[in-house]
Amino acid sequence: MNSVPGKFITFEGPDGAGKDSVLDAIIPDLRAKMGDKLVVTREPGGDPIAEQIRDVILDPQNTRMDDRTEALLYAASRRQHLQDVIEPALARGAVVICDRFVDSSVAYQGAGRQIGEQEVFALNQFATNGRTPDLTVYLDVPAQVGLDRIKAHRKDTQYDRLDQEETAFHDRVRAAYLRLAQANPERIVTVDAMQPLAAVIADVQAVLTENIPR
Fold first, then answer.
1. What's the pLDDT score for residue 28?
2. Which residues of the chain have pLDDT under 50?
3. Quick one: pLDDT at residue 209?
4. Side-chain-side CA neighbours of residue 172 (13 Å)
5. CA atoms within 13 A on the CB side of 214
6. Looking at the domain assignment, is residue 63 inside a domain?
7. CA torsion angle 128 46 150 174 (round to 10)
8. Is residue 195 part of a domain?
9. Domain range for residue 74?
10. Is the pTM of this model over 0.70?
11. Number of domains the chain contains
12. Which element (helix H / strand E) includes 55?
């Protein structure tokens, strides 16, 4: 076992918050500095089995998927990803940056699908054996703004099942994220994603500089 503890950092935000753009901007510099001590991954997915589950979850043709089935699939994908990628990386002292984790399920399935935030949290506590990020960077943007950004930058063929939900669904998702941030101020750092992209990137870089071991 590595004597230097790893660090688990997650990125969260409503659809259209700009996570992909921010991560694309910050990761190359981090990778150049950290080498194999940096592991970048995503959910759902992140390993071969979890990626197969991702394809099922997000396939726009799966219109009959039950809401609880969806939540269970996310938890199953997360468990496999955690065991195959995240835990081994943390055990060797790496910094793991993951695009989405349990907070996403609480917000999207618990609140968005209205099947219960506490119920979805409990399901994921079982799936992850209680693993919690050391730091979560939450990019906040109003739901309609995020959806407008998606429409402006994607073609019709690029929409997945969650993108196609009504605005009310995404409003519930954002409200849940804000509740999570308020309830977990020691873990979740909120960044205003309504700012110009360069300012958002600068804010995120400042947060990571404070929290990633040198």
1. 97
2. 1-2, 157
3. 95
4. 18
5. 2
6. yes
7. 10
8. yes
9. 7-211
10. yes
11. 1
12. helix 48-58
